[in-house]
Design goal:
By secondary structure, the protein is mainly alpha-helical. The protein contains 25 helices and two strands. Helix 14 runs antiparallel to helix 15 and helix 16 runs antiparallel to helix 17. The mean pLDDT is about 85. Helices cover about 70% and strands about 0% of the residues.
Length: about 475
């Protein structure tokens, strides 16, 4: 029989773990000794996070060669980082669940420090699944939960907050893999007193070059703390100071609407529109907020006016079209719609059109036919989508145009992708009166003219 020194190198971690658990169930003395050892190792030892952190550091320190036999090109091995960081995250979560919040916090913080390194080759196109963003989000949750634990000394919490504060300003984090500003705020709120949090927020707000959206987020957090702690005058002063920021103003609009002070809400919105106009920014969001107020107050006149304005501004919108149709008297609708469309520079995409969608809903076959015959809508994609709506009224004219367009397309294009497109158009013809016969005749012509195009012959074989 072989001895233990010879056999141990063959054992896997799973082998040893299974043996220890099984033996501990049978032997109370071994159970007690093993439990004491593991508690000292992972729960009571101040350095219990060290091995997990070392695994992360090793992963971030590895590179792989993606060069060829002529050149060596070493880059960060993100596959290894993905695997190791995911496994360590599970272990850190177990440590937190067992009560060792300090170790979990150290591991989470080290993950962010390692990702903040300037010499890493970031993935960009290779990060197809966005796994780094997901992993960092999970590490962020772990960090916030850990730093909020009463078992973590305040000195350790403050040290982590200091590190996060520096990372918020890091150029590396501007790559967008993690919202460090939000993580900093969540971690600070979980670990700092209200007074300390206010000081931190003031410091962050005063940063030069800060984006308005970030400044607004810090300001809103400060306003919330001031209101929660009863510092009403200071909260109002802060609101006035940052009301020029859209996010802060929208927050105040929401509060006014909640307390049903609709006059105040509209005034805030109007001022927001004015600021947006002066800064050459879109006013759409502000108008939509104003429209929401008029819906709540059942002010149909202003609701109609604003819906009409937004329809024109958006170059057509089915949402505003449907809302206007409910607001306008049925007897006046046709004239109203005609005037509305004449005022609107309608939007048309490659294969769809809001104007065409409206004519379909209005069952206005004449205008739909005229639109499809217009050069701006005279494409196979438009015919595929809308022609069947004209089957009962303009089938012959539409089929003539359809056949002509498909013939022209076949003349100008070759290849499997284009042959599939021809088949698709011929299938759409089948929805028209006499469309089956037209598609069959067209197929016969193609078999005669393009008989050498075997791929095309295969595509149209069913016609």
């Amino acid at each position: 029989m072989k001895q233990i020194d010879d056999l141990m190198p063959l054992a896997t971690l799973e082998d040893l773990r299974a043996f220890c658990q099984d033996y501990a169930r049978k032997d109370k003395k071994f159970n007690k000794v093993l439990t004491k050892f593991l508690n000292e190792r992972f729960i009571e030892d101040e350095d219990s996070a060290a091995d997990f952190i070392a695994r992360l550091e090793d992963a971030f320190g590895t590179e792989k060669n993606i060069g060829d036999r002529w050149h060596s090109y070493y880059v960060t091995d993100w596959d290894d980082i993905n695997s190791v960081s995911t496994d360590v995250l599970k272990d850190a979560r177990r440590l937190l669940d067992m009560g060792n919040a300090s170790a979990a916090l150290q591991i989470a913080m080290r993950m962010f420090e390692l990702t903040d390194a300037e010499d890493l080759n970031y993935m960009y196109e290779d990060d197809e699944d966005g796994w780094l963003t997901d992993v960092l989000e999970d590490y962020g949750k772990l960090l916030v939960e850990s730093i909020g634990s009463d078992s973590v000394p305040q000195e350790e919490k403050d040290e982590v907050i200091g590190k996060l504060k520096m990372m918020v300003r890091s150029e590396i984090w501007n790559l967008g893999y993690c919202d460090m500003g939000h993580l900093f705020q969540e971690a600070s709120a979980a670990s700092q007193s209200d007074d300390a949090m206010l000081r931190l927020l003031d410091e962050m707000i005063s940063q030069p070059g800060l984006y308005d959206s970030d400044r607004a987020e810090y300001a809103l957090r400060k306003i919330g703390i001031l209101e929660k702690t009863g510092q009403t005058d200071e909260a109002r002063k802060t609101i006035r100071q940052y009301l020029c920021l859209p996010e802060v103003r929208k927050h105040e609009v929401a509060k006014a609407v909640e307390r049903k002070d609709y006059a105040e809400a509209v005034q805030l919105i109007k001022d927001g529109q004015k600021i947006a106009t002066e800064n050459n920014r879109s006013t759409k969001e502000w108008k939509e907020l104003e429209l929401d107020v008029y819906r709540r107050t059942n002010d149909k006149a202003k609701q109609t006016e604003l819906c009409r304005e937004l329809f024109v501004q958006e170059r057509g919108s089915m949402d505003y079209y449907h809302e206007l149709k409910k607001l306008i008297d049925a007897k006046e609708w046709k004239a109203f719609l005609a005037q509305l469309l004449s005022e609107t520079n309608m939007q048309a995409w490659y294969s769809s059109s809001i104007e065409a969608d409206i004519y379909v809903e209005e069952q206005d076959s004449e205008r739909l036919f005229d639109l499809l015959m217009d050069p701006s809508h005279h494409t196979l994609d438009m015919f595929d989508k809308y022609a069947h709506h004209l089957s009962a009224t303009h089938s012959d004219e539409i089929i003539t145009e359809y056949v002509s367009m498909v013939k022209d397309y076949a003349t100008r294009n070759m290849g499997a992708k284009h042959y599939s497109r021809i088949r698709q158009a011929m299938e759409s013809m089948l929805k028209l009166n006499n469309g089956k016969a037209a598609a069959h005749q067209l197929a016969e012509r193609f078999r005669d003219v393009y008989r050498r195009r075997t791929s095309l012959m295969a595509e149209i074989s069913k016609f």
